[in-house]
Design brief:
Length: 295
């Protein structure tokens, strides 16, 4: 079962060109108690990461790996860049579009960093394929195979697996990957590969009035989590108990299905917080996670 709370690197992350910003954020997280970490590389899709610097990204990855070793921190998963839903793309040249050359280059680089650091799971967003707003389960699942399989094959031999994350419908339109059947349909194309699912509790709370039945359906295929809260309307990424997620019931499902992956916070509460207030909030969130793990 889950041993310790974990967190993405984003709470303390501030990009400054020419600096090892992720390593600095990691040290601050470790000082707050977090030793189980998700390497958040989402800023790469908008050019706001030291890993986007073509001449220095390998150096920064090595600095990060050395810092993790010094701190006794373990990277258990990562969040590479993710494509925007089709309904939110400005065009196929949108930097967040999976067709865009820059986006694809950053995705490949993020996975190379995973392999370089020995990170076992990369959490991937299912793609609502071919720049269309409707969902066709068979067509979209095949699109995800065609898009993600070459990326997977590029790093699979070095131990990186893909965990496909549950999505949530947005802007009143269906989004592929929001329901278990669609996640299973992706996995069916990766038979024999190192793949699994990531359950995002915030997405689940947006998608369902009660996410527990859906969580129960996917629980045996879970290898990762994104832990956050909201009130069911927007993806707020709040600390647990600040929204309406039924945490005792969530934990009961994970325990009943012997989930052994990590309990990883994906929080946005730090985004506009003054720097002196971030560490106290991160420590409080750690205490909340410890409480949840005992439920």
């Amino acid at each position: 079962m889950i041993a310790k709370p974990g967190c993405m690197t984003n709470p303390f992350y501030v990009y400054e060109p020419g600096k090892p910003c992720t390593a600095e954020a990691l040290a601050k997280l470790a000082a707050c108690g977090y030793k189980v970490i998700d390497l958040n590389m989402c800023p790469m899709q908008r050019g706001a990461s030291e890993f986007c610097e073509d001449d220095n990204w390998e150096k920064y990855a090595d600095i990060l790996g050395n810092e993790a070793a010094r701190l006794g921190v373990t990277f258990v998963q990562s969040h590479p860049p993710y494509p925007k839903p089709a309904v939110r793309r400005k065009s196929l040249e949108d930097p967040g579009c999976e067709y865009n050359e820059f986006f694809l280059r950053m995705m490949k680089r993020a996975l190379e960093i995973d392999a370089r650091l020995g990170i076992p799971w990369a959490v991937m967003h299912p793609v609502s394929g071919r720049n269309k707003p409707d969902v066709d389960e068979e067509d979209d699942a095949a699109f995800n195979r065609d898009y993600y399989m070459p990326l997977y094959e590029a790093v699979a031999s070095r131990g990186v697996g893909f965990a496909f994350e549950n999505m949530a419908d947005v802007d009143g339109r269906r989004r592929f990957g929001a329901v278990p059947e669609e996640l299973f349909s992706i996995l069916s194309y990766f038979e024999g590969c190192k793949t699994g699912l990531c359950w995002d509790t915030g997405h689940g709370n947006r998608q369902y009035a009660d996410q527990i039945p859906a969580l129960e359906r996917v629980a045996d295929r879970l290898v990762c989590t994104h832990i956050d809260d909201n009130v069911g309307e927007k993806d707020l990424h709040q600390i647990p108990f600040m929204g309406t997620v039924a945490w005792e019931r969530v934990m009961r499902v994970l325990k009943d299905h012997s989930y052994e992956g990590a309990f990883i916070y994906e929080l946005a509460s730090f985004r506009s917080l003054p720097e002196p207030l971030k560490a106290p909030l991160a420590k409080y969130a750690y205490t909340v996670a410890e409480y949840i793990l005992k439920l």
